[in-house]
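Need the bound structure for xanthosine-5'-monophosphate, inputs here:
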Amino acid sequence: DWTTGNVIEEQVAAIRAQVGDKRAICGLSGGVDSAVAAALVQKAIGSQLTCVYVDHGLMRKGETEQVEKDFVAATGANLKVVDASERFLKALAGVSDPETKRKIIGREFIRVFEQAQLEILQEDGPEVAFLVQGTLYPDVVESGGGTGTANIKSHHNVGGLPDDIEFELVEPLRKLFKDEVRMVGAELGLPDEIVQRQPFPGPGLGIRIVGEVTKERLDLLREADAIAREELTAAGLDREIWQCPVVLLADVRSVGVQGDGRTYGHPIVLRPVSSEDAMTADWTRMPYETLAKISTRITNEVADVNRVVLDVTSKPPGTIEWE
Ligand code: XMP
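Answer from helper R.:
Posting the output first, comments after.
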């Protein structure tokens, strides 16, 4: 019988058998999969798990707090938060090319995460031998089905550790599809904002600013994005829309008029798409009233934005993200 209760029971037993009395680390991304994997492992081994969240400063409004407060409140997990936003901003300074941004964000992410792992390894307590990953069934099939290990390099960082540390992987979602993962997460008591979350790219808002990423631009985009999300949710469109990137065209300015004066501000692009798997997508024919509300609110409430435009391109030829 497939029930969330049975899945949880089976996985809790399997995790306990695998980990024994050793310790495990789980990286949280803010996404559904890592949160549910961590919650399952937490249920199985409690304080033998330490979760790590790298705050790269590229998350949307409220998302870091969701991990820091709501996830911890729901699971009781040990969470180590690393605020690395300054480091990411520095590394991204002057960079506009999308693939270069992705590479920098990915590289910095691994460095910060590995440093956090090493710190946990050096704490008192049982050996840390496991790394938890939120691998789903479709990922397993795509990668040929193997399970494995992960290495971190310790050399330049701290003494007393071998050069190469190997973790065995714990992958409690390997038999599950996305909708099943959401059900398991809900059963484990995770809030809707986490388990029903739409896809969001790892590089975050860094690839939704067309142009250089700066703190001011991130703050501006966070405000515009929060307004769009609020209105889409209020209109009941969260299920119909697969995801709706909100993009800041930071290098574009256009003329506007507001109050008594002429403005010269930036456009915000709304990119609502409908999709089954993100491989192909169509732009969502969403209600004009909701578009009007979002447009009015963004231009009124977000300084330096004087225009909101709608992306009406399917995928292909457009990708979902603008970068
Ligand atoms: P595109 O833009 O290629 O996006 O149509 C397809 C799906 O993938 C997400 N996406 C990413 N996710 N890292 C991620 O983790 C990335 O660099 C990345 N780029 C795109 C995108 O949000 C959409 O769901």
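Comments: The chain has a mean pLDDT of 96. The two ends are 44 Å apart (CA to CA).
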